[in-house]
Write a structure and sequence with these properties.
Distance between the termini of chain B: 37 Å
Number of strands of chain A: 4
Shape of chain A: globular
CATH architecture of chain A: Orthogonal Bundle
Shape of chain B: globular
Largest interface: A-B, 19 and 28 residues
CATH superfamily of the domain at 4-88 and 157-233 in chain B: P-loop containing nucleotide triphosphate hydrolases
Radius of gyration of chain B: 17 Å
Largest sheet of chain B: 6 strands, mixed
Order of helices and strands of chain B: EEEHEEHEHHHHEHEHEEHH
Oligomer: heterodimer
CATH topology of chain A: ABC transporter involved in vitamin B12 uptake, BtuC
Strand content of chain A: under 5%
Number of strands of chain B: 10
Structural class of chain B: alpha/beta
Radius of gyration of chain A: 19 Å
Structural class of chain A: mainly alpha
Number of helices of chain A: 11
Strand order of the largest sheet of chain B: 6-7-8-3-9-10
CATH class of chain A: Mainly Alpha
Chain lengths: ~290, ~240
């Protein structure tokens, strides 16, 4: 029974990684850059929902909505101010280093505004736990919500990309920016939309993450950010189903590693698996050898 | 008034002056060929017209409107499509998805369906392969897809960059036949080609580019018999 318990917790944690990984993978697929500030957008989103829900006493729905709106705007502002001017830069390193800079900027702004002391995040998701197998197996409400939400987000996103004009424009930009422009696609607008979606999802991931692991500091986003990035690479960066597969695998490996091998070593195990996967299949599990897909 | 007027444009790549102040015009209904050797500036000229590059000086007027400063993605909606060099189809998308992207600027769904029907009639091969990924098509089919995709926006002027590049002689003939057909439906054609003989055989007028300058212009039929042209471009 405890194995199933760990497995479900792993899938739940992995679902959070998958939602974060979407932000990395979509931005990489479309703008061909690694947005290392993505993890810190999650942290900002968590603080926003903490302030609105726990301190201002707003209901869960407005708190979630405000958090998503703030993160979406933040993502678009970061893209517009820090990344867009560098899009034509000769070296792709310029934008990578800028992204790391933005990451530190967000962390330090959060330090200034919210302080270094951890705050106890109060979960706004009040769903009764699920009891299975005659009460032997208890799954918390947040676990269920996380997994379901992750699957819903993935489904909606895949339909959005396959069926809408904006989604097709994203695919076109990810394959060939110039050709997409010749079709009449506003490439800059499409990249901005991608950042908006990724950052909005970051807000949701932040709320889910802090509801399950309720300690919030300005550095809360950094580690899940790196792990979600790992998940994106693991699944094949640029691929949306890859983000799901990579995220869930990573979460399961982390939780099982912590339970059965060593809780100190669980992160090391996660990254060791990444190294092995990349040695065997450098493009990741669902990555395509030549083209990137959104 | 000419449909397209290019007025004294200069285009730079960094410090290199690739186009050294050229002017030409395309009238409604014409097929105009822009011929010249590799590196003469044909593609650069075309990319400047359709907004992929911006000129340092000079202007481009389309149907009387100055489009020099208009962002590239808005130009296709004004009625000018561009079939890029090397086809540039979206390899990972299906033929149908590629075609629909061609109609990205068309708002009316019924118009999109109409265009789709027209393209399928002109290119039956595309209809047969509509659900296939574009990357799996042969070179000739990809060229047809690139042309069909451009036609989806219902352009009044279609600019084509080296449509015959890398194709077998039989396919080259087919592609030029298609260009003639496109022209006969009333669409104006601006054609950039290294295959000067073929281009001149279907064009009304032509301009000869050499290292960023127009060195010769005239009726295509006359250029075909011009001794200098014969020596330099027709291999006779």
């Amino acid at each position: 029974m405890s194995f199933i318990m760990y497995l479900i917790n792993g899938i739940s944690l992995g679902s959070v990684y998958a939602i974060i990984a979407l932000g990395y993978t979509m931005v990489y697929g479309i703008a061909k850059m690694l947005n290392f500030a993505h993890g810190d957008v999650i942290m900002i989103g968590s603080y926003i929902s903490f302030v609105t829900f726990s301190q201002m006493g707003l209901g869960p729905v407005p708190a979630v909505v405000i958090s998503i709106v703030v993160c979406t705007a933040l993502g678009m502002i970061i893209e517009r101010v820090a990344y867009k001017p560098l899009r034509k830069a000769v070296s792709p390193l310029a934008v990578l280093i800028t992204a790391i800079g933005v990451s530190y900027l967000l962390q330090n702004v959060a330090l200034l505004v919210f302080g270094a002391n951890p705050v106890s995040y109060v979960s706004m998701i009040a769903v009764p736990p699920l009891k299975l197998a005659g009460g032997e197996l208890t799954i918390t409400g947040i676990t269920v919500i996380t997994i379901v939400l992750c699957l819903v987000i993935m489904g909606v996103l895949m339909v959005f990309i396959k069926k809408t004009k904006a989604g097709q424009a994203m695919l076109a930009v990810s394959e060939d920016k110039d050709a997409a422009q010749l079709m009449g696609v506003n490439v800059n607008g499409t990249i901005a939309l991608t950042f908006a979606i990724g950052s909005g999802l970051a807000a949701i991931a932040g709320i889910l993450l802090c509801s399950a692991y309720p300690t919030l500091t300005p550095y809360t986003g950094a580690m899940p950010g790196i792990k979600a990035f790992t998940a994106a690479v693991f699944g094949g960066i640029g691929s949306i189903p890859g983000a799901l597969v990579g995220g869930i695998l990573l979460g399961v490996i982390e939780i099982l590693g912590r339970a059965y091998i060593s809780s100190q070593l669980s992160d090391a195990i996660v990254f060791a698996v990444l190294i092995i996967v990349l040695l065997v299949k450098p493009t990741g599990i669902l990555g395509k050898p030549i083209f990137e897909k959104v | 008034m000419a449909m397209l007027e290019v007025k004294n444009i200069e285009v730079y790549y960094g410090v290199i002056r690739a186009i050294k102040g050229i002017s030409f015009e395309v009238n409604q209904g014409e097929v105009i060929a822009l011929i010249g050797a590799n590196g003469a500036g044909k593609t650069t000229t075309l990319q400047t017209i359709t907004g992929m590059l911006s000129p340092k000086s000079g202007e481009v007027l389309f149907e009387g409107v100055d489009i020099t400063k208009i962002p590239g993605h808005k130009i296709v909606g004004m009625g000018m499509a561009h079939v890029p060099e090397g086809r540039r189809v979206f390899a990972q998308l299906s033929v149908l998805e590629n075609l629909r992207l061609g109609a990205y600027t068309v708002k009316e769904p019924t118009q999109v369906e109409k265009s789709l029907e027209r393209v399928y009639t002109s290119f039956p091969r595309l209809a047969e392969r509509k659900n296939q990924m574009a990357g799996t098509l042969s070179g000739g089919e990809q060229q047809m897809l690139a042309m069909g995709r451009a036609l989806m926006s219902q352009p009044r002027l279609i600019c084509m960059d080296e449509p015959s590049m890398g194709l077998s002689p039989i396919l080259v003939d087919e592609i030029f036949k298609i260009i003639t057909n496109i022209s006969s439906t009333g669409t104006t054609v601006l054609l950039v080609e290294q295959n000067a003989k073929k281009a001149l055989s279907i064009a009304d007028r032509a301009y000869v580019l050499e290292t960023g300058n127009i060195v010769l212009e005239g009726k295509a039929s006359e250029l075909l018999n011009n001794e200098d042209i014969k020596k330099a471009y027709l291999g006779e």
